[in-house]
Amino acid sequence: MSGFFKSSVGQKFLMSITGLFLIVFLAVHLTANLFLLAGSDAFNVVADFMDLNPIIQIMQPILAAGFIFHIIYASILTLQNQKARPKAYKKFEQGHSSTWASRNMYVLGTLILVFLVIHIINFFWKIKVSGSPLLAEVNIDGEMMHNSYALVAGLFMDAQLGIVYSILYIIGAIALGLHLHHAFWSALQTFGWSNNVWRKRLEVIGDIYAVIIAAGFSIIPLYFLIFM
Ligand code: HEM
């Protein structure tokens, strides 16, 4: 078994399974975030529910491990591919069967990682560790909870840096969409779920998902910039 996970097929399998796990996380995270558009009470209640929910508590370290393994195996496989592939072949391949996103998965992944580190410092770190005056508890229907809405709104509506953070979050969302454009069917292909007929269908499903994720995460900073 350990031999399988040391082989490049096994490593691709681990990268795909952690990638699919992250794809599911993104759908849950976007759904929760879209409550920001419904106003402060709605989002704070959802954020409070997520914060206290035991399943989410158990999932958080698993999620962190998912990200770490995904990045480690992506790095190993990219290095192996670079060593194995002669330069002439690389040139020939460009623009033929592959898309720009599929050739630049590691660059897109690195961009997403940079975004993620800034994002964790912006929100997760403040909510769980350092605190922020913006998080001062609010009373919603008799229950006291953090004002997570004020933290998010405060970032995107900040007089000096709001526009910079909004652009950064939109770039992060677009990079994520491009990454998913290739990642979705590629992961399923690793599990052998993609034949000639299904490859086209999975590509379309993956593209729809990628557009929903990129547009959905971009709408949030745009909403605070334009409407608030
Ligand atoms: C407009 C876009 C986004 C907003 C407003 C947003 C908001 C938030 C907030 C408020 C938290 C803290 C949740 C808590 O601990 O109570 C959080 C955590 C997190 N976000 Fe985002 N997020 C956005 C986009 C993204 C994207 C694109 C990714 C992935 C690439 C992502 C990944 C994470 C992760 C891994 C955590 C920590 C785990 C968790 O608390 O669930 N977020 N986000």
Describe this entry's structure for a reader.
With 228 residues, the chain is an all-alpha fold. The protein has one domain: Up-down Bundle (3 helical TM bundles of succinate and fumarate reductases). The chain contains 10 helices and 2 strands; from the N terminus they run αααααααββααα. The chain has helices at residues 2-6, 8-34, 40-52, 54-84, 87-93, 100-103, 105-130, 148-156, 162-190, 196-227; strands at 138-140, 143-145. The protein has a two-stranded antiparallel ribbon with strand order 1-2. α2 (8-34) crosses α4 and α2 (8-34) crosses α9. The model has no long low-confidence stretch (mean pLDDT 90). Protoporphyrin IX containing FE binds at residues 29, 33, 47, 50-51, 60, 63, 112, 116, 119, 123-124, 127-128, 148, 152, 169, 172-173, 176, 217, 220-221.
Summarize this structure as a short list of keywords or feature phrases.
228 residues; mainly alpha; 3 helical TM bundles of succinate and fumarate reductases; two-stranded antiparallel ribbon; 2 strands; 3% strand; elongated; binds protoporphyrin IX containing FE
Shape, principal axes of CA atoms: elongated
Number of helices: 10
Strand coverage percent: under 5%
Rg over CA atoms, rounded to whole Å, is 20 Å
Give the CA-CA distance, first to last residue.
55 Å
Q: What would CATH call the class?
A: Mainly Alpha
Could you give the count of β-strands?
2
Which regions are unreliable across 5 or more consecutive residues at pLDDT < 50?
A: none
The major pleated sheet works out as:
2 strands, antiparallel
* CATH fold label: 3 helical TM bundles of succinate and fumarate reductases
Percent helix among the residues? Answer: over 70%
Q: List the secondary-structure elements in sequence, H or E.
A: HHHHHHHEEHHH
User: Which structural class should the secondary elements be placed in?
Assistant: mainly alpha
Mean pLDDT: 90
CATH superfamily: Fumarate reductase/succinate dehydrogenase, transmembrane subunit
Structure ligands:
protoporphyrin IX containing FE
Q: How is the largest sheet built, in terms of strand order?
A: 1-2
Summed up, the domain count is 1
